[in-house]
Amino acid sequence: MKRLFICLIVLVSVLQVDAQQPISLQWDFTGQGISVTEAQSYSYTVFIDSGSGVPLTALCGLSNNIPTCVAPLPIPTNGTHTLFLRASNSLGTAQSDTITFKYPGTPGKPINLVVTKGA
Q: Does 67 sit behind a cis peptide bond, omega within 30 degrees of 0 on the bond before it?
């Protein structure tokens, strides 16, 4: 039994793990006259693939003098997804347009290829 356990530990330690990279959602309030303080005070909920809403913890700041927020997204299953974001405060809610995205994204384009001799 000890040998089996040790073999499993060794096997697990040599397997390459393809860790999923964290993803995030970014949005801004261009042309809406909203301050960073106001943007940070909102509650945000993301709705992925018409599922139930998931609260987001947003961090807001200024980017080119525009209030801009970012929050980690739950890792979705592989494939194409839709999502929209809802901002809320004590006066009501406002909802973004729906966007479509693919997870994981397509790979980056390999550049600067060089053929060399030997390995």
A: no
